[in-house]
Amino acid sequence: MPNQPHSNSNVSNEIAFENFFEVWLVRQQYYLDQLLPFLSSQSNREKELQTLVGQVLAHYQHYYEAKSRSASENVFLIFSPPWFSTFERSFLWIAGFKPGLAFRIVDRSVGGPLWMEIVRRMERPVVDGQIATITNEVEQVVQSLSERLRGLVINADFLRTATARELVDILSPLQAARFLIAFAQLQLKIRAWGLQRDAERRVR
C-alpha cells in the first residue's frame, strides 16, 4: 500500500502526456495541411512560408518540452511509451527518432546538388559521433539510473532538435517546407499503420 501514491502519479503522468500527444498530433496534421499548398503555389509567399516553418519548429519544441516534463516524473515511461503503437516503438532511439533520420528525409524530399552542401556544412560525422557518444552513455549507466536516463533523454532530444533546426537554417523556406512535410507524413503514416496493426492483433 505505501507504493500506491507513486503508482497513481505514474498513471496520471501517462494519461496526461497521452492526452497532450493526441492533441499535438491533431495540430501536426493542421500544420501539414497548411504546408502542402505551398508545394504547388506559384505565387511569391516566401515570408508567409518562413513564418509557417517557424511555427512548425515551435510545435516540435513544444512536444519536447512536454516530454521533458513527463520524463522528470517517470523517465522509464518515456523509453517505452504506451501511447505509441508497437510499430512506432520499434523506431525509437533513446526515446525518440534517430537524428540521422533527418538527413535521409532531406535527401529524399529535397535532394539534388544541395545535398552535398548540406553534408559539408552540417559535418555529419560530428552528428554521428555524438550519436555514438550518447549510445555509449547508455551502456555505462549503472548508478543513479533514473537521473542518468533523464540526462540521456535531454541530450538526445537536444541533438534531434538541433539537427532539424540546422537543416532548416540551411534550406530555403520551400525546401524546409518539403522537409517538414515529408517528416510529418512519415510520422503520421507510421502511427496510422502501427495503430492499425495493433488493432488487428487484438481482434485475432
Question: What would you note in describing this structure?
Answer:
The chain has 204 residues and is mainly alpha-helical. The protein has ten helices and no strands. It has helices at 4-35, 37-40, 46-73, 75-79, 86-89, 100-109, 114-122, 124-140, 145-170, 173-203.
Outline the secondary-structure elements.
Elements: H1 4-35, H2 37-40, H3 46-73, H4 75-79, H5 86-89, H6 100-109, H7 114-122, H8 124-140, H9 145-170, H10 173-203
Helix pairs in contact: 1-3, 1-10, 3-9, 3-10, 6-9, 6-10, 8-9
Concise description?
By secondary structure, the chain is mainly α. The chain contains ten helices and no strands. The chain has one domain (about 5-204).
Radius of gyration: 19 Å
Cα separation of the termini: 36 Å
Number of domains: 1
Structural class: mainly alpha
Which of globular, elongated, flat, extended, rod-shaped describes the shape? globular
The helix count comes to 10
Pattern of helices and strands: HHHHHHHHHH
Helix content: over 70%
Task: Describe the largest sheet.
Answer: none
Indicate the mean pLDDT.
81
Brief descriptors of the model:
204 residues; mainly alpha; 81% helix; globular
